[in-house]
Write a structure and sequence with these properties.
heterodimer; A: mainly beta; Alpha-Beta Plaits; two-stranded antiparallel sheet; 2 helices; 4 strands; B: alpha/beta; Rossmann fold; 8-stranded mixed β-sheet; 8 strands; binds iron/sulfur cluster
């Protein structure tokens, strides 16, 4: 208690204010925001994580969350807004944008 | 404020594979597709192993991540007013410090105040100045999208010279904003702040290393992050990262850090791309590429070069000492 910044006071009751459950936005689906959807070619994907580092949502799911090495990815189609950044930043060009209506094998993911 | 805490250990980011993979931001927030500020926030949160406490000023990130009744935050977070994120973050830091001294703090966490350019350059400037002067151990992050975006693209003091916004229109009389961007880094450095840096979402490794360095400091730190807004700057959402990258490559937004008054350019740009490469992607600058505005373009180029030389002169003088 020798620190001059700290004095023995309180406790003061403080109002809890309004609060929301952290991460509850996940239940809100934003898939109808997009006109095009990204599709990952898992043969070409080298697992560099660039798409994940640049996705603003995040709507890139890592197949290896626990690891410390390269991880291939899949798209979270409930939340992807179709911005196309992942396609732009992917070094081996493993992601392509296709029209939303297009049927893709395995829904573009595993 | 003890310097020997766990938070004081600084590890630069060496590889993308070592960064924390547990998400700190949930999807389903309402930021526009291709939002630059959200990329900035994700990169900042993922760069730290310990979950920080984040205090958000009013702004794009705040309104889109806490749209009632949802929250996208997976770290302790609070929204405060437009002007006082630095003041509230100071209080949080002081409270955690008090708990620590009493031996009641369960886990040490970095405190981050987060505000846009409006909440930093304009509305929150006095609270920021106060927090810097008092010396709280906290990181203040300004994500700079160069105008008041979610309210309708009104100019701020961070809007660059010559840019179109709804309140700096382009016409016969006005070639976009007539005033130059405020030198917020200069203002912060003048407080004697131990660490201040600029960063861009396109250079994730540089950005994340700076976040880690900032939270390891035993005092107030500042990070100015360039975060393009495709709605306000008028470009395609897919180009957000490209625009940020070109801002660095054309010397429009220099990446540097100031540690205890010493300047260091972290991303040197020996051969800059022509400024037009950056401007031509964006509708807000399209008028500058027309012949009738060549004088304004020249003036903007002069501003960019002057800013670059000033920072490099400060860095090289100190490199010689
Ligand atoms: S298109 Fe955009 S939102 Fe969708 S996964 Fe790619 S970067 Fe993320
Ligand atoms: S950027 Fe491309 S190669 Fe890298 S992880 Fe993503 S999809 Fe795979």
């Amino acid at each position: 208690m020798s620190d001059p910044r700290v004095r023995p006071v309180g406790p003061y009751p403080i109002s809890q204010g309004g609060w929301h459950e952290g991460g509850s936005s996940k239940a809100y689906v934003t898939n109808d925001w997009r006109l095009e959807k990204p599709v990952v070619d898992l043969e070409k994907c080298v697992g560099c994580l660039y798409c994940w580092v640049y996705c603003p949502e995040p709507a890139i799911d890592l197949l290896d969350r626990a690891g410390k090495g390269p991880s291939k990815v899949r798209i979270d189609y409930d939340h992807c807004k179709g911005c196309g950044i992942c396609q732009q930043v992917c070094p081996p060009k493993a992601i392509k944008m296709v029209p939303e209506e297009e049927e893709v094998a395995n829904n573009g993911s595993i | 404020m003890e310097g020997n805490s766990k938070l004081s250990q600084f590890q630069p980011v060496k590889s993308i594979f070592e960064i924390n993979r547990e998400e700190r931001m949930a999807p389903g927030h309402r930021a526009c597709a291709g939002c630059g500020p959200m990329i900035a926030v994700r990169q900042i949160l993922q760069s730290l192993d310990v979950k920080p406490v984040v205090i958000s000023a009013t702004g794009c990130v705040e309104v889109t991540t806490s749209t009632y009744p949802d929250s996208a935050w997976l770290v302790p977070w609070a929204h405060v007013a437009f002007e006082n994120s630095a003041a509230v973050a100071s209080g949080v830091e002081a409270a955690m410090h008090a708990l620590k001294v009493r031996g009641e703090l369960k886990e040490e966490r970095p405190v981050i105040a987060l505000a846009g350019d409006g909440g930093t350059f304009d509305i929150g400037l006095q609270a920021l100045s106060g927090a810097l002067e008092r010396g709280h151990r906290m990181l203040y992050v300004c994500y700079d999208n160069e105008a008041y975006m979610n309210t309708g693209i009104q100019r701020s003091s961070a809007t660059p010279f010559g840019a179109w916004t709804t309140t700096s229109p382009v016409g016969k009389e006005w070639p976009g904003k007539a005033e130059i961007k405020k030198d917020i880094m200069g203002i912060v450095v003048a407080h004697g702040t131990p660490y201040a840096a600029t960063a861009s979402i396109s250079h994730w490794k540089d950005l994340m290393t700076k976040v880690r360095k900032a939270v390891s400091q035993n005092g107030p730190t500042f990070l100015h992050v360039y975060a393009p807004c495709n709605r306000g700057w008028r470009f395609e959402p897919k180009d957000t990262v490209e625009v940020a990258k070109r801002a660095v490559e054309t010397r429009f937004f220099p990446l540097y850090e100031v540690e205890n008054g010493r300047y260091r350019v972290t991303v040197p740009v020996a051969k800059p791309r022509p400024l037009e490469d950056f401007l031509s992607l964006q509708g807000r600058f399209s008028h500058l590429l027309k012949p009738e505005n060549s004088e304004t373009l020249k003036e903007l180029k002069g501003i960019v070069e002057e800013r670059w030389s000033k920072i490099n002169a400060a860095a090289s003088v100190q490199a010689q000492v």
